Amino acid sequence: MRSLMRRVLLDTRYTLVGFPTTVIGFAILVSGFAAGLGTAVVWIGVPILAGVLMIARGFADAERGWLSDVLRRPPVRPRYKPAPEGAGRFRRLINPITSGQSWLDLLHGILNLPMAVISFVITVVFWALPILGLTYPIYGVVTSRIPGGDQELPELLGLGSGYGVNVVFNVSLGLLGLLILPVMVRGAALIRAGLGRALLTGVAELQERIDDLAEGRAAAVSAEANALRKLERDIHDGPQQRLVSLAMELSRAQRQMARDPEAAQATISSAITATRETLDELRALSRGIAPPILSDRGLAPALAALASRCTVPVELDVQVVGRFQAAVENAIYFVVAETMTNVAKHSRATVCTVQLTRTGNVLMLTIGDDGVGGAHVAKGHGLAGLADRLRAVDGEFTVSSPDGGPTVIVAEVPCA
Fold first, then answer.
1. Which of 197, 374, 402, 416 has the most CB atoms around its CB within 10 Å?
2. pTM, whole model, 2 decimals?
């Protein structure tokens, strides 16, 4: 109820306070635009037009602030085209004319008037309906005593006459108005806000989306590059060294075969053991590249397999079913895998908790441990790569890990 009342009050403020502001802006912008356009042929109108566009920008910025409350979005301000470096005073003065968003601001200031009038009228009418209806028992005592004042709407509708009938009718009408007030006021606010979003923030939102996609692509490239470097380092430090040692063992066995068969047999047995260890290590590395259990069976079995291999006890709670896009599943899997590795190596924790839930179209992954803390996503640390990997799928990554612990890592990944 409190949230609903707050929403109604915000929408009412937007439509009522915005109406006189819109009227003032319309008068200034239309007259200024007409004056500037009419004198542009003698160049006097050019700086006038630039000034009008700057005024329109001021009204547009105020409207954007109100839009953030009405549309429940953070305020978005477009990027206005700056003046070129080294431009002269006159070029800087008329720079607003060269910005397309400035003309959209002016267009909004002009077209917003009819929207503001409609929104204002709807708001006033549907606020007046419950107020006048519910307070009728107070002022109706006075109006019913005025000569001819007792002939009111109920009598005209054939419902009867008298103070009692009027009270029942008007209070009922007021209650009905109170019920539909939030819907009508919300609709009135959205009528006006729709135009504002289209003209004032539409281009900026599109630009932000483009920037997010560019950052996501860069993050994906960075994450893959880091993963390849890590894989190369792991292969160099592990299987490659084992294979070199294996080749040396087999060469020694070959030399021993003629003069000392028993020693050669022992060397070959050692080489077979080293071969098995190398195969196990290669399998572990291949799971890090593309784990078959993830692609074949999905997240729940893959995370269970990770938990079973972790050296720290893991409490796993997976509350999702079904399959998701491969990029989403891979991102969540690698976040869990890398985090479990960090927990086992650095946290000194006695238990690790992993929970995966779905809220709407978002997968929520929460990983915690009771270790010493101190984890962060600064560049150069393992968690920074996880943040980049999640950014590539429009995900968010937060870490809370004070010194002394505990550590809580939260990843949110869209799954629609």
1. 197
2. 0.57
